[in-house]
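Here is the promised in-class demo. Please do not try to memorize the tokens; focus on the logic of going from shape to residues.
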């Protein structure tokens, strides 16, 4: 028996192939409908009784045309019971997904066709399919959705459910609430300043003004994976399906999403503690960003389905600022930084080992590192690696892993068959690795590093890690005052693994135990230092020489509550979200990307016989082997290879 179809009153009834035998035994009401459509032609469903229409449709005597106007604006609700089996090479299916991530309540079908540069009839047919399947509906012209912008409401409701909460929870909420209280006054100043400079802004705007544009929070598939894990509610899983398949959750749907996040069950299972905190931080981050402007959540992978030109037209038309979660996957490259203001790592160069080498070279400090091109057969490691016990090994476009140096060659050579590999030295295992994230922006005036020096002597210097000279040096040299994120520091140890263990004892077992309770034990299991919560406080005193800069990550992290709260506070303190800083953000991103690409170009040689990376959305593969040692990046060639010490086990030598 056919299921009941959700038929809209504005659909058009058409007669099917109707024979005399088909209508002979029909009830009178159904015969009258058939006769009317035959005599009068196609007619709207609203003119008939819905039950009669349903019966005729189930009998196969009528069908429907779903009319779509070029002025239609489309809204996609949360997908429920949605299953899509994607087919390779299906052009119309690709078009459906492109329209999925591109449409919103502000854009009509004609504008959508212009943005995507596809035929209008193709867009109208695709929208008609969405209507027919019930996965989208036509927005009324008077649709004006004004979401609740109150941060306090969400926080208070969460507190009622979870009780008084821990000290970290109260501190986190206090920071966010304090930012909220300051925001209304700041927004008044922002709007007044914007009105004064309106004439200047108009020259760089499209048809929509900056004030009518929204903010986009960009995320990768790791967020949807967390929403789908564990015993979370079905409604949250529906939102996860929507975020993955549609690739976007518009501002009009966020109230429902936030409500489901607030009502997510507090599971006591050890493996779920990290996910529960992640959801809480995600909810507070969304509420906070919505206090500035309308907010859309967009999955980076869905935007990659658009060609680069269409992607930029879409983003420039609808958004005045893009803010990404941190860190993003290393294969995400979405935007031209000179076209739209961005806070985050939305260029593949910023998430690749190239950027790490660039900042190491810029500040003259970093872990001993070796970047190996794909296809290299590694027989030994350079001599400087002999003093270390472990390696942080990163296969291109993958998360890093930590392995022992004694049996590393088999693992590295296996990776080199498929990808370039980034190898970094440390004296700490995964369990003992000490990590610290220091948020930025910060005022450059605090920097105490000599501007003219390329290196800094820290062999005997001790102090709070938040005052580490190399942190302030990267703040100054990269001018990290118009973007936000965090600098990841790792403790490589001064001499041996024993040094790492001694620091662990000196830091205090109780302090680390408190961190474990705060972040959940499973949060400590990530092998990527950029995704692992800090294992010590930033005010702890230690030798600066034992710590080194690992990476600089742009965006808003969701894995660490305190780090997230600190960066959200800096968004307000440094006024990074207002209109006036958009130009500064564009300039910063353009300049930094140009410098990183120039650095990459220095080591890309056309003479090397190696297949190139053909993905335009990814950073280029290295064409030579590069070694970072004692503040310098050098080419590690075959001559250097013959001179290096034999650092391999008997069973670890490749054949």
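The designed amino acids, position by position:
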């Amino acid at each position: 028996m056919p299921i009941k179809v959700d038929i809209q009153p504005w659909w058009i009834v058409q007669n099917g192939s109707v024979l005399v035998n088909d209508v002979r035994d029909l009830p009178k009401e159904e015969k009258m409908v058939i006769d009317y459509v035959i005599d009068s032609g196609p007619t709207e469903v609203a003119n008939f009784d819905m039950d009669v229409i349903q019966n005729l449709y189930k009998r196969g005597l009528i069908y429907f045309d779903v009319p779509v106007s070029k002025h239609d604006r489309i809204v996609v609700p949360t997908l429920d019971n949605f299953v899509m089996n994607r087919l390779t090479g299906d052009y119309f299916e690709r078009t459906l997904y492109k329209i999925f991530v591109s449409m919103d309540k502000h854009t009509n079908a004609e504008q959508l066709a212009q943005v995507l540069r596809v035929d209008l009839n193709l867009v109208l047919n695709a929208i008609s399919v969405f209507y027919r399947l019930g996965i989208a509906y036509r927005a009324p012209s008077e649709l004006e959705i004004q979401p609740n912008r109150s941060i306090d409401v969400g926080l208070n409701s969460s507190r009622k459910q979870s009780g008084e909460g821990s000290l970290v929870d109260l501190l986190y909420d206090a920071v966010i609430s304090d930012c909220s209280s300051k925001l209304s006054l700041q927004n008044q100043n922002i709007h007044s300043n914007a009105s004064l400079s309106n004439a200047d802004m108009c020259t760089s705007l499209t048809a929509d003004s900056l004030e009518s544009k929204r903010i986009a929070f960009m995320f990768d598939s790791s967020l949807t994976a967390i929403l789908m894990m564990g015993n979370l509610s079905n409604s949250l899983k529906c939102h996860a399906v929507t975020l993955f398949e549609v690739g976007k959750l518009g501002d009009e749907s966020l109230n429902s999403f936030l409500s489901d996040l607030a009502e997510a069950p507090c599971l006591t299972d050890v493996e779920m503690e990290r996910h529960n905190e992640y959801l809480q931080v995600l909810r507070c981050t969304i509420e906070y960003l919505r206090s500035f402007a309308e907010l859309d959540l967009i999955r980076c992978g869905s935007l990659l389905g658009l060609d680069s030109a269409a992607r930029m037209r879409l983003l420039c038309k609808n958004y005045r600022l893009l803010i990404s979660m941190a860190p993003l996957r290393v294969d995400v490259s979405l935007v031209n930084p000179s076209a739209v203001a961005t806070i985050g790592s939305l260029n593949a160069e910023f998430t690749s080992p190239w950027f790490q080498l660039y900042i190491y070279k810029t500040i003259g400090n970093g872990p001993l590192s070796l970047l190996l091109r794909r296809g290299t057969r590694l027989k030994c490691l350079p001599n400087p690696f002999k003093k270390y016990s472990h390696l942080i090994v990163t296969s291109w476009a993958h998360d890093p892993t930590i392995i022992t140096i004694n049996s590393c060659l088999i693992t590295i050579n296996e990776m080199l068959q498929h990808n370039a590999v980034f190898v970094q030295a440390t004296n700490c295992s995964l369990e003992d690795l000490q990590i610290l994230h220091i948020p930025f922006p910060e005022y450059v005036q605090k920097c105490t590093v000599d501007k003219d020096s390329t290196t800094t002597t820290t062999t005997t210097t001790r102090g709070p890690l938040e005052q580490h000279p190399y942190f302030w040096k990267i703040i100054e040299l990269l001018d990290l005052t118009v973007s936000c994120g965090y600098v990841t520091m790792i403790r490589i140890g001064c001499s041996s693994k024993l040094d790492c263990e001694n620091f662990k004892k000196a830091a205090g077992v109780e302090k680390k135990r408190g961190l474990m309770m705060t972040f959940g034990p499973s949060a400590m299991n990530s092998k990527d230092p950029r995704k692992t919560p800090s294992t010590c406080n930033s005010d702890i005193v230690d030798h600066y020489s034992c710590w080194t800069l690992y990476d600089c990550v742009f965006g808003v992290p969701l894995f660490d509550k305190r780090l997230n709260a600190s960066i959200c506070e800096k968004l307000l303190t440094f006024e990074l979200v207002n209109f006036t800083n958009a130009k500064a953000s564009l300039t910063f991103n353009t300049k930094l990307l140009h410098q990183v690409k120039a650095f990459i170009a220095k080591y890309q040689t056309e003479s090397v016989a190696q297949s190139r990376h053909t993905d335009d959305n990814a950073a280029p593969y290295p064409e030579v082997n590069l070694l970072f040692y004692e503040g310098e990046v050098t080419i590690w060639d075959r001559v250097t290879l013959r001179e290096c010490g034999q650092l391999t086990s008997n069973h670890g030598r490749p054949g």
